[in-house]
Design a protein that fits this description.
The chain has 120 residues and is mostly beta strands. It has one domain (8-119): Roll (Thiol Ester Dehydrase, Chain A). Helix content is 13%, strand content 46%. A six-stranded antiparallel β-sheet has the order 1-2-4-5-6-3, covered by helices on one side. Strand 5 (98-105) and strand 6 (111-119) form a beta hairpin. The longest helix has 16 residues, at 46-61. The radius of gyration is 14 Å and the shape is globular.
């Protein structure tokens, strides 16, 4: 399932260093997933956050990837879908199959997620 274009959009994509990339994405608040997660208090599902990260890594590598193992995935704060909710995602390749990811709200720098994973 691809979420780009209907759940989020990429605002910017830059290569900061040889193995370090940065994305800024905007979460689109009107998606139907929030009808079930949760109708009275919508929250961006964790699996959707991981899918956004996976799609960003696939864009960098120019091929579809999946997570082989997730060594660490720590959600630090919830994302509430609202107008202009942007998330800055910093992706670092520690070798050809390992990534370290940090995500934070772009407007205030509040940490959202830390991830260490192996990809294939």
């Amino acid at each position: 399932m691809h979420l780009e274009g209907n759940f989020y959009k990429i605002d910017s994509f830059t290569q900061k260093e040889e193995n370090n990339y940065s994305f800024v994405v905007t979460i689109l608040p009107g998606h139907s997933i929030y009808e079930g997660h949760f109708p009275e208090q919508p929250v961006v599902p964790g699996v959707c956050t991981l899918t956004i990260i996976r799609e960003c890594i696939s864009r960098i590598l120019e091929k579809e990837i999946s997570f082989a193992t997730i060594k660490e995935c720590k959600y630090i704060s919830a994302l509430i879908p609202e107008e202009n909710l942007s998330v800055a995602i910093d992706i670092t390749f520690t070798d050809t199959t390992k990534v370290k990811v940090q995500a934070e709200r772009a407007d205030n720098g509040q940490a959202v997620l830390k991830l260490r994973a192996e990809i294939r």
